Amino acid sequence: MSLGTETRSPWVRLSRRRDRAGEYGVSTMQTRSINLRVDELLARMTLEEKVGQMTQVGVLQDEHVEMVRSGAIGSSIVASSAWAGHEDQPDVVVDRLNEWQRLAVQESRLGIPLLMARDVIHGFRTIFPIPLGQAATWSPELVERGAAVAAREAAGVGIHWTFAPMVDIARDPRWGRIAEGYGEDPVLASAMAAAAVRGFQGDDPAAPDRLMACAKHFAAYGASEGGRDYDTVDVSERTLRDVHLPSFRAAVRAGVGTLMSAFHEIGGVPVTANSHLLTGILRREWGFDGLVISDWNAVAELIDHGVARDRRDAARLAVLAGVDVDMCSGCYRDHLAELVRSNDVPAATVDDSVRRILRTKFRLGLFEQPFTDNHRSRTILHCAEHVAAARETAAAGIVLLRNEGGLLPLGKRCSRLVIAGPLAQARRELFGTWTLNGVESDVAAIADCVRQTAPRGMTVTAVGGLVDEICSAARKSDMVVLVVGEHPNRSGEAHSVDQLGLPPGQGELVRTLAALCKPLILVVVSGRPLALTWEAEHVPAILWTFHPGGEGGPAVADALFGRINPSGRLPVTMPRSVGQIPLYYSRKNTGRPPATCRFRSHYIEGSYRPLFPFGFGLSYTRFEYSDLELSAATMSADGQVCVAARVTNVGDRSGDEVVQLYVRDLVGSVTRPVAELKSFRRIRLEPGEGRRVEFVLRPEHLAFWRLDGTWGAEAGEFTVRIGPNAVEGLEGRFTLDNAVAQAE
Ligand code: GLC
Q1: In Å, what is the CA distance from 576 to each residue of 176, 530, 534?
Q2: 449-480 tens-digit pLDDT
Q3: Atom 10, ligand 1: which residue's CA is nearest?
Q4: pLDDT digits over 322-341, tens only?
Q5: Whose CA is nearest to atom 3 of ligand 1?
Q6: End of a domain among 555, 580, 605?
Q7: Residue of the nearest CA to atom 1 in ligand 1?
Q8: How close is the Cα of 582 to the center of ligand 1, in Å?
């Protein structure tokens, strides 16, 4: 790509002074209000240049040189194809991105910088657990730190904008993208969404180690029929507001700079053409002033949805609904200018979109600093600090589901250990889905970590895939660790499944080994909940890790040997069978609540209960709850009720407990869930240590989408429960004495 002669952009005066960008010096403009600068720039733009800002293309190629020079491209997604994160993508080359930036800034008429975007979902080069695994930590602090590490690494190579966090609520494990979000609950997902936004953006997304975040996929993408990706969603306005919008609302409140509209329809209206959602709720009700980008090619897919006659119609519907940037469909590029000239799209609509895009670029400081220092990245990618953070997060997300007879942690009772199974030697697979820049050589397999860190006196034999080999080795051992689960290609986008058992052949392997009557420990590595009912009844110890990232090997080994005490808690309900789906803890009571008797909600042949409930997780120690206290029996409209309980570590080793607070609204203007998580706290307790844990409940915590279509709390009786998961704990009651309208 030849850059040609240098021309001056009117927006930055180039000087050769070295500054934090290193070799590209730009002097900094007088600081003026961003809106003033946006309006001044907008006034100078042609209609074609405005449409250019609304156009995003894939990885920039030579064919794009003239488009960049003419201002026909506003941003690039630095990704080689629409494989949705299931393939190695060419690495990001900072010098290359700087070259494209220089072309835009120095050779286009107005010198508007390009936005460089990428899916940095759960790490860039240092890969953290998949977001579902991060949610299993119930630690917003760890999620925030993970996003900050990802931002530091990606910004260091010239990325400005990540298409994360994915904050869709998922209650159907058949859906492959349950891996990418924070689980089934709005409160847990909201806490993680806000934490991720803080981590990616920091206080100033223009900082050289921060990214502009993008909450996606707005909204209710996880409610697709049959768990089939991209399929029809038909939720009520109430379910939309109560379940699927809160995590996006939390991201917006946390200052997220952008949102991504989703592929699917809601009740007949595709999201990408849904002005009720993209403008009515997002902008008018919530006051969101950032930009909305479509998902990949989603504008053109309005034709497939059957609401657009052609690409021109698709462009019209999307821009009128509130989609500012067209990701890679080309519909805006090809038709938007003509739509404006023919008055099918008001010029003001395009101006509003361009303002939001330019504001984003100003907020990112791109006009002052369009280039990236290409020296910094080499020192921070996969540095020791980042690796340690990934390992701590991986460890904190490991969930101990069973430990009959205290088989774990492995110790003196085991001097000959066999470790085997289809994921025992896995390395890249531990990354999980959406890990474009992960490097397999960074990863140590679980089997290797177990073998290398076993306590003195224990011999560890790692056995390959043949069942006979495994059984033969197992017969000569004291205990067997079997590592099973999912390859990332069963997980993530376009990877929904219609069965929830272990992948083919693995269930038989488990049964074969269980029949040897050797103490068997199952380590499950997955991108979703699985219905391991037989295993849960016949395997005495089960450790679960949702694709733990690059440090999963050491983390699992540390958990097996007790160097860490498992403290993960389920962010999703574990079903007994695929036939139970959808299955989630905050269900409605119905007129015939579930019970194993006729004329009640139940299955003839199976249980209606989950295999393991939301929020569940064991520890190598034990925690007891006592002394529930409520500060008052009545909450006034402007008041609060403090709810506290004592949590005591009655075991012989320290451990983290996730104390959870659930509420039930006993009578409402509409039916209300049998339980709703309202708050949680992760605490560390030493052996014998007890601590009083207090939560403050206010009317805003009791708000929901009421019968009259307003958001608020209603007077009446509530039960409140403090406990270790969605179905256990100490319960009390209080009354809210007046209805309280709230801002949503
Ligand atoms: C994909 C995904 C979205 C991603 C985008 C860019 O199809 O739906 O999550 O950010 O395209 O890769």
Answers
A1: 18, 8, 9
A2: 999 999 999 999 999 878 999 999 999 999 99
A3: 163
A4: 999 999 999 999 999 999 99
A5: 295
A6: 580
A7: 84
A8: 25
- Taking the centre of ligand 1 as the mean of its atom positions, its distance from the CA of residue 59, in whole angstroms, is 14
Give the range of the structural domain holding residue 431, as residue numbers without chain letter.
392-580
What DSSP string runs through 22-47? Answer: BT--BPPPP---HHHHHHHHHHH--H
Instruction: Return the residue whose CA atom lies nearest to atom 12 of ligand 1.
Output: 84
Residues with CB under 6 A from ligand 1: 77, 79, 84, 119, 163, 216, 295-296, 493
Q: Model confidence over 269-328: pLDDT tens digits?
A: 999 999 999 999 999 999 999 999 999 999 999 999 999 999 999 999 999 999 999 999
Q: What is the CATH number of the domain that holds 733?
A: 2.60.40.10
Q: Report d(CA 249, CA 247) in Å as an integer.
A: 5
Both 457 and 520 in one domain: the answer is: yes
Q: Verify that 575 and 643 share a domain, yes or no.
A: no
367 Cα–ligand 1 center, Å? 27
Output the six-digit token pair for 117.
């975007």
The number of domains in the chain is 2
Please give the DSSP secondary-structure letter assigned to residue 618: B
Give pLDDT, residue 33: 85
Rounded Cα distance, 189 and 181, in Å = 8
For a mutational test of ligand 1's pocket, the pick from 162, 163, 229, 328, i.e. the residue with the most ligand atoms closer than 8 A to its C-beta, is: 163
CATH of the domain at 456: 3.40.50.1700
575 and 695 share one domain:
no
Q: Are residues 572 and 642 part of one domain? A: no
Kindly report, residue by residue over 34-93, the tens digit of the pLDDT. 999 999 999 999 999 999 999 999 999 999 999 999 999 999 999 865 566 666 666 788
Catalytic residue among 119, 172, 295, 558: 295
At residue 743, the pLDDT reads 77
Span 342-349, mean pLDDT? 98
**What's the CA-to-centroid distance between 248 and ligand 1, angstroms?**
17
Q: Which atom of ligand 1 is nearest to the CA of 166?
A: 9
Q: In the annotation, is 91 catalytic?
A: no
Q: 83 C-alpha to center of ligand 1: Å?
A: 9
The structure tokens 């250019």 sit at: 52
- Pair of tokens at residue 552: 């999963």
Q: In what order do the strands lie in the sheet with 258-261?
A: 214-218, 258-261, 291-293
Take residue 569 and report the two structure tokens written for it.
């808690």
Q: Among 529, 554, 580, which residue terminates a domain?
A: 580
